[in-house]
Amino acid sequence: MKTLLLEIGTEEIPAGYIAPALAALESMLAQKLADARLAHGCIQTFGTPRRLAVTVAALAARQKRLTSEVLGPPRKVDQDLCTVCKACLKLGCPAIEWMDDAIHVNEMLCGGCALCEKVC
Fold first, then answer.
1. How far apart are CA 21 and CA 29, in angstroms?
2. CA distance 31 to 10
3. Which run of H or E residues covers position 3?
4. Which residues contact 35 (CB under 8 A, 6 or more apart)?
5. Which residues contact residue 106 at a Cβ distance below 8 angstroms, ignoring those fewer than 6 apart?
6. What is the DSSP string of 53-91?
7. What CA–CA distance (Å, rounded) separates 10 from 24?
8. H/E element holding 52?
């Protein structure tokens, strides 16, 4: 576990804005670390009119493991409804393929999450 130091150089900040900026920096960083599943220790902030800084003690080197199971039947592309916008290809799903000028779902790779249906 390491200590993280984030330092932000700024133009002159009025004295009355420093404390709220530091509080916002601390809460936003704590939320982002939680969202990223990174364990950490104490978060401390420091500020001057030209500099904001935050330290995070005992920051984990790796994210906590995340296991998820997706159940459902494999999806199929309804070629009559598909507009060939290719938005589903940008998801990075290995089951979605572009073949013969059309979108296809490889049933062997599809976990049935239906994320592709929500994009299109």
1. 12
2. 23
3. strand 2-9
4. none
5. 94, 95, 96, 97
6. EEEEEEE-SSPPP------SPPP---TTT-----GGGGG
7. 16
8. strand 51-59
Residues contacting 37, CB < 8 A, separation 6+ = 63, 64, 66
Extract the tokens encoding 8.
């932000």
Using 50, 70 and 90 to split pLDDT, how confident is the model at 103? confident
**Residue 51: helix, strand or coil by DSSP?**
strand
Record the tokens describing residue 74, joined without a space.
Answer: 């494999």
pLDDT in tens, 40-99: 999 999 999 999 999 999 999 999 998 877 666 677 777 777 888 888 888 888 888 888
Query: What 3-state class would DSSP assign to 114?
Result: coil
